[in-house]
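Hello,

I think I submitted the iron/sulfur cluster job twice by accident. Can you confirm which output corresponds to this input? Input:
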Amino acid sequence: MQKTECYKGLAHLGQIRLLTMSLLTQVIQCFLGMVGFLAQLLTRAAQQQEDKLTTGLSINYHFTRMCNYTCGFCFHTQKTRDNLPLDRALEGLAMLRKNGCEKINFSGGEPFLIKKGTYVGEMVKYAKEIGISSVTIISNGSKITEEWFSKYGEYLDILGISCDSFRSEVNKIIGRDDKSKGYDHVIQLHKIARWCKQYNVLFKINTVVNTYNWQEDMNREILKFGELLVRWKVFQCLVIDGENAGESALRNAASFVISDSEFKEFLDRHQQCSRVLVPEDNESMRNSYIILDEKMRFLSNVDGQKTPSASILEVGFENAFKDAGFDSQMFLRRGGKYTWTKAEILAERTAPGASCSSSLDTDLSW
Ligand code: SF4
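Support: Only one job matched these inputs. Its output is below.
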């Protein structure tokens, strides 16, 4: 009798053990399933991010190094006077579009120097026609005419003009000056802002903060542009070996360089402009741009100087892009992806609940 009860007890214990084991196995399987599911989610998110980057490339095409200004810190200097024949440049643009380019920025040197602006104008028009959603230009502004706006303005999303100071004498010291008689960079800036408004082109200002302007208070002048100004990009003066530093360089930016705390002080002083102010310190600038030079070669800044890849026109986009030195994470971190088409920006403004503060007509008092 006792033996039978003992066997029964043992069998019961065995059942409990089996049950516990099976429960444990189920819990472990469930846990592993969840880990697998989470891993899948993360992979999918990373893939989506990757897709977004390769289908939404923002490319800066510095198609000329020629410039009529002499900015002391220039980091894309006049090492050559070359630029591609227009048909080759258009061929390259088509290749960029095919490989996921969503935004193209034409820059230099000074983009409006070649063929009195028709070269850049034809590229702007073509880029829009082949479906690049955002087409922009960065210029010093000195050669832009109203005639250009009337011919090409409709194809341009944003025009950015470089302006480091609202004091003419400071611009002259920096070298932001055409040096022709009676020319004034700030007066030209205001003229261009008016044309932007008239021809429905969004207006942007780029400022390089350096030794000569870091103490300036630009609030009043920047706010004067009201809603016409969509972006004020504020860069910390950057040193690039071979461009504005080192023996082979055409410029020496050493006397223009400011410290991180001076840059921060400039930014703090301009909090009132936070609606449009986009700061970029040296760290965020390096490798967060995809840059093509005058031969359509990617320029990598990985080792502190601009190292060219082969040209996309010779080896194809993918082969050249491997050497672009592009840091997509830094690009995202510096806010490289933003609302960049004219249509979207204007739609945001008219959306219900959008700010309708300063109107252009009342704010612009030149
Ligand atoms: S405007 Fe100044 S910074 Fe720009 S390309 Fe000319 S010299 Fe260089």
